[in-house]
Amino acid sequence: MNDKEHLNNIQSRYIRTLENIKQVCSQCDRSPESVKLVVVTKGHSAEDTHAVIAAGARYLGENYVEETTQKKAALDQVAGQVAWYMIGHIQSRKANLIPAVYDQVHSIDRLKIAEKLNQQLERSGTKLPILLQYNVGGEAQKHGWQANDEKSWSLLLPEFLKILALPHLCVTGLMTMPPFTTDQNEAFNNFMKLQKLRVFFQANISGLELKELSMGTSHDYEAAIRAGATFIRIGTAIMGERAYK
Ligand SMILES: *Cc1c(COP(=O)(O)O)cnc(C)c1O
Fold it and tell me: What is the DSSP letter of 138?
């Protein structure tokens, strides 16, 4: 496969994915505009990233701040045409680098990181949209607040409220990365748990509106759309295999 073919493949997979999103939306009575496609470009070159932007991608997801910084520099003016979202676990010593590089963070997984980001944003006087990450599948190694057991959801309220009170962060929604499964029903049930958690927070915090649900990846995004995802994060199905997870 030559380079041109390789870049064409990225573009046609992007277009095909968009068409599939439209089809799933019509099946479940949602408007396609209500689902934003975040193309996950981590582990892919600036050239490949350029190809997907040229195909029309407007939201990109990345996991490592150094990688994103280099990629944005390599893409030059083109980098400004898209919104860059942090979707990976943030190490606390890197938190101060985040606001300069990303337009949103989908992966706030602990209070300490939110506080560090807020401190950093205080200096520039700006506000950053964030989503809070919850672990709805109960896997011990996954990041995010443990939210597997619905009966203990009220224990999540104190830290949620502390983050809501941070003046330079704007909590727009929730994010999850459930256990890998090829069973679409199981995937749907996991995503519905995040949907229910959203309802729980809104019912228990007066005036709160959580607009966004960031959930669903290459193998399970159709189930995520059916469960109400507003952001789906797709890497492999568009960009191809990467060297690392
Ligand atoms: C890598 C990653 C994705 C993309 O996964 P694919 O299976 O390649 O679609 C989505 N979300 C998060 C948080 C990721 O780390």
Answer: -
End-to-end CA gap in the chain: 23
What digits encode the pLDDT tens for the residues 69-98? 999 999 999 999 999 999 999 999 999 999
Q: Which atom of ligand 1 is nearest to the CA of 218?
A: 9
Q: Is 239 helix (H, G, I), strand (E, B) or coil?
A: helix
Find tokens 């990976």 and name the residue.
88
Reported confidence tier of residue 245, pLDDT bands at 50, 70, 90: low
Q: How far apart are CA 190 and CA 179, in angstroms?
A: 9
Residues within 6 Å of ligand 1 by CB: 40, 42, 63, 87-88, 177, 217-218, 233-237
Report residue 137: phi and psi, to 5°: -100, -5
What angle do helix axes 157-164 and 184-204 make, rounded to 10 degrees? 70
**235 C-alpha vs ligand 1 centroid, how far in Å?**
6
**Distance, CA 205 to ligand 1 centroid (Å)?**
30
Cα distances (Å, whole numbers) of residue 121 to 1, 70, 82, 207, 210: 45, 22, 21, 24, 22
Residue closest via CA to ligand 1's atom 13 equals 87
Q: Which atom of ligand 1 is nearest to the CA of 236?
A: 8
